[in-house]
Amino acid sequence: MVPPRVFISYSHDSAEHKSWVLSFATTLRNRGVDAVLDQWDLKPGDDLPHFMETELAKCDYALIVCTETYVAKANAGKGGVGYEKMIVTASLLSSIDDNKIIPIVRQSSSPELPTFLKSKLYINFSNDNDVEYSLDELLRHLLNAPLYEKPELGSSPFKPMAESKPDRTADGLKAAMTAIAQAFENSPYDQLSIGQITGITNIHRLKLEKYLSQAESEGLVERNVLNKLSVTTDGCDYLINHGIIEA
């Protein structure tokens, strides 16, 4: 993996703040991030606006350290911070979904971002006791090592009704049981031959045998040694529940 190149933008609030930014950038480099910082990469005589514009253009990410002073200068457009604001704003306008700019909040009061970064999600480094949690969140993003990976999209467990095939087996079983009920209506005996049932329905003999076997396997009818059929108690319930005979 090529280390991500990260440009750090900040305001020179105080010697203490400059020291914090230096320590922050050093930690990033120690953990695999190619951090670019003016304290290392800008020398006396270098062109400040050119340095800012060049580094912002070629970096993978720009970390904007937002102190109260930075926010005030950015909103007022003062000094180097104001110049960076113009460059970053132009970048945002040219690619509205660009996520290369990450605000880093370092403030003593409630977090506040410059106007041009108001819509951005930030990482809060204000509390030194929670710095490792904040670093973990930042590094996982910069190094593309998310704590939780989005699972692959599965397929729908449902099928549209338009694509569902009719249950012909259920229809055939009902037709066979209807024929049995009608055959019993016409017969004085408690058992029926296959011929008696065949004479009642227009179902092909081979299909009728299939549905009668299904009815037998489901316990709706019983077949004796003479291959004659009788309706079981479950079979009577089936005939009633399906409206074939009255209860």
Q: What layout of secondary structure does this protein have?
A:
Layout: E1 5-9, H1 15-30, E2 34-36, H2 38-41, H3 48-58, E3 61-66, H4 68-76, H5 79-94, E4 101-105, E5 123-124, H6 131-142, H7 168-185, H8 194-198, H9 205-217, E6 221-223, E7 229-231, H10 233-241
Parallel strand pairs: 1-2, 1-3, 3-4, 4-5
Antiparallel strand pairs: 6-7
Helix pairs in contact: 3-5, 4-5, 7-9
Short synopsis of the structure:
This protein is α/β, with parallel strands linked by helices. Helix content is 46%, strand content 11%. Strand 1 (5-9), helix 1 and strand 2 form a beta-alpha-beta unit.
Q: Count every helix, treating DSSP H or I runs of 4 or more residues as helices.
A: 10
Work out the strand percent: 5-15%
Shape descriptor: rod-shaped
CATH superfamily of the largest domain: Toll/interleukin-1 receptor homology (TIR) domain
* Largest sheet descriptor: 5 strands, parallel
CATH topology heading of the largest domain? Rossmann fold
Structural class, from helix and strand content? alpha/beta
Question: Which strands sit side by side, in order, in the main sheet?
Answer: 2-1-3-4-5
Our Rg estimate from Cα atoms comes to 40 Å
> Which spans have pLDDT < 50 for at least 5 consecutive residues?
none
Helix content: 40-55%
CATH class of the largest domain: Alpha Beta
Give the ordered list of helices and strands: EHEHHEHHEEHHHHEEH
Identify the CATH architecture of the largest domain. Answer: 3-Layer(aba) Sandwich
